[in-house]
Specification:
nine-stranded mixed β-sheet; 10 helices; 452 residues; PH-domain like; four-stranded antiparallel β-sheet; RTT106/SPT16-like_middle_dom; 16 strands; alpha+beta; single chain; histone binding; PH-like_dom_sf
Length: 452
C-alpha cells in the first residue's frame, strides 16, 4: 500500500486520518513512536473494514423500478452536490450507535439494524443478512420525530415516527425533487438488549434505562432542527383507557379515513393520523380550519382543512376522519380551542353541505329547488303561526254574556236552563215564606177574638 505522506513518526498520514477520524485521542496517540507499529496495524485493519462496508452499501433512496431512466440516475447520483454528498456519507460514515432486530413498518416491513452515523449525522437502516443499507435520511432533513405508544397491544411498546421534510402527506416536494420516505419502527418497552456503540460495546443497560429512552436520547443529541415529541395528557388523553392494558391511559382515538382504519394522536406540535400508509401529520402551520360533521348520538366526524406550506388557498385539501367515538368529543374540542384552530362547523359552506346531504350533487337545478322548498316552508309556517295567534286573540276576547238572545248557540243553552231553574227555585221559596207568615198572623188574631 502506497501513501502520499508520512508523519514525523514514520506513519502514513492518510491511513491514520481515515481510520481514526472520529477518535481524536487515538489519532493523537498514533504520533508517539513507541506506539507506531500497533497503530499502523490498527489503521490498516480499520481501513480495510471500511472499504468492504462501502463496497456493499446502497444510496440513501433506492431507485424505483417503474420510474424513467433519467429519474433513476438523479436519485442514485443526486440532483445536487448536497444529495451526492449525502449518498457518499451514507455509505462511508462510520457508525456511532446501532440497535439490532428493530421491526420497521415504513417504508419497508422487515427487521433491520437501526444505525446513527458519527460526524455526518445520518439515520439509516441496514439489512442484517446482506449488510446493505436499505434506506436512510439525514438528521437535518427530519422535520418531526414522534414517539407514541402503540394502541391495542397487550405488551407495551412504542412506535417512532420519523417524518422528513415533504413527507408529512400534506406538503409535496418541489417540482423535480424527491423527498425521503417517512420511517416508522417499533421498540418494546424494557431494557435495550441489542444496543451498541460504534466500537461494539453494549450500551443502554444502566438501571432503569429503557430502549425507548435510549433511542430518544440518541435522536435528540443528533437531530438539528427538531426533538422527539411524546403524547402529553395536558394536551389530550382519551376518555376511554387502554383496553388491552388496564390502568394505562390512551392518547389516541380510533378513526376511519375512507375505509382505512387508523388512530389520531393530538400532540403539542400537531395532529397525526397513523399507522397506515400514507402517514398524515397536520402541523399547526398547515391547518386552515377544523370542523365537525355527522354528529350523532354515538359518533361524529372530524374534518381538517389543510394548506401545504409551499401552497396557496387553491391548494387547500380537506381530510375527513369518521366514526370517532362521541365520548372523545369534549377532549378534542378543548384541544382545538386551546390551540386556536378555527372551528368552521357553522360556516356558511358547511351548513349548506350538511343540509343538502341527500340532494343530487353539482346541479344548479337541485340547489334552486331546495331553496324554493325552504322558502315555501317558511311561508306556510308563517301563515300557520298567524292563524294560531288570531285564534288565541279570539278566545281571549270572547264574553258569553255580551251576545244577544237571538245569537245564542247550542253550547250556552245548558247554562241558561240552569239559571232559570235557580230563579224558579228562589221564587217558590219566597212565596212559601209569605204564606207561612200570613197563616201565623191569622191564627193569632183568631185566638185573641175567642178570649174576648
Amino acid at each position: 500500500m502506497a501513501f502520499a505522506a508520512i508523519n514525523s513518526a514514520g506513519m502514513p498520514i492518510a491511513v491514520i486520518e481515515e481510520a481514526f477520524v472520529t477518535e481524536p485521542s487515538l489519532k493523537k496517540e498514533s504520533t508517539m513512536r513507541s506506539h507506531a507499529p500497533l497503530f499502523e496495524d490498527l489503521a490498516r485493519y480499520t481501513s480495510s473494514l471500511q472499504a468492504r462496508t462501502a463496497s456493499t452499501t446502497l444510496p440513501i433512496v433506492p431507485p424505483p423500478t417503474d420510474g424513467p431512466a433519467a429519474k433513476k440516475r438523479k436519485i442514485q447520483n443526486g440532483s445536487s452536490g448536497e444529495t451526492a454528498q449525502a449518498s457518499v456519507n451514507l455509505k462511508d460514515a462510520p457508525t456511532q450507535f446501532y440497535v439490532q432486530d428493530i421491526s420497521f413498518s415504513m417504508p419497508q416491513r422487515k427487521k433491520l439494524t437501526l444505525e446513527v452515523t458519527a460526524g455526518h449525522r445520518y439515520l439509516r437502516a441496514r439489512n442484517q443478512a446482506t449488510k446493505e443499507v436499505e434506506f436512510g435520511v439525514s438528521m437535518d432533513q427530519i422535520r418531526h420525530a414522534l414517539c407514541l405508544p402503540v394502541p391495542e397491544k397487550t405488551q407495551k411498546q412504542f412506535n417512532f415516527c420519523i417524518i422528513p421534510e415533504f413527507a408529512d402527506g400534506i406538503t409535496p416536494p418541489p417540482e423535480g425533487a424527491t423527498a425521503p420516505d417517512a420511517m416508522v419502527f417499533t421498540v418494546l418497552d424494557g431494557p435495550a438488549k441489542a444496543a451498541f456503540s460504534g466500537s461494539g460495546q453494549q450500551i443502554g443497560n444502566n438501571l432503569g434505562e429503557t430502549a425507548e429512552g435510549l433511542i430518544r436520547k440518541i435522536l435528540n443529541e443528533n437531530m438539528l432542527n427538531s426533538s422527539v415529541v411524546r403524547p402529553d395528557e395536558r394536551e389530550f388523553v382519551s376518555a376511554m383507557p387502554e383496553a388491552h392494558r388496564k390502568g394505562d391511559k390512551a392518547y389516541h382515538v380510533k378513526a376511519f379515513r375512507g375505509s382505512k382504519e387508523g388512530y389520531l394522536f393530538l400532540l403539542s406540535t400537531g395532529i397525526l393520523f397513523a399507522f397506515k400508509k400514507p402517514l398524515l401529520f397536520f402541523s399547526f402551520d398547515t391547518v386552515e380550519s377544523v370542523s365537525y360533521t355527522s354528529v350523532l348520538q354515538r359518533t361524529f366526524n372530524l374534518n381538517i382543512l389543510a394548506r401545504p406550506r409551499n401552497g396557496s388557498e387553491e391548494d387547500n385539501e380537506e381530510f375527513e376522519f369518521s366514526m370517532i367515538d362521541q365520548d372523545n368529543f369534549g377532549g378534542i374540542d378543548e384541544y382545538i380551542k386551546r390551540h386556536g384552530l378555527q372551528d368552521s362547523s357553522l360556516a356558511e359552506a358547511r351548513r349548506a353541505k350538511v343540509y343538502n346531504v341527500n340532494a343530487p350533487k353539482n346541479t344548479d337545478e337541485s340547489a334552486a329547488a331546495e331553496t324554493t322548498v325552504v322558502e315555501e316552508e317558511s311561508e306556510l309556517q308563517k301563515a300557520q303561526r298567524e292563524l294560531e295567534d288570531q285564534e288565541d286573540e279570539d278566545e281571549e276576547d270572547y264574553n258569553p254574556g255580551s251576545e244577544g238572545e237571538s245569537e245564542g248557540s247550542g253550547s250556552s243553552s245548558d247554562d241558561d236552563s240552569e239559571d232559570e231553574f235557580h230563579e224558579n227555585a228562589e221564587n217558590v221559596s219566597d212565596g212559601d215564606d209569605e204564606d207561612l207568615i200570613k197563616e201565623e198572623l191569622g191564627s193569632e188574631a183568631e185566638d185573641a177574638g175567642d178570649d174576648e
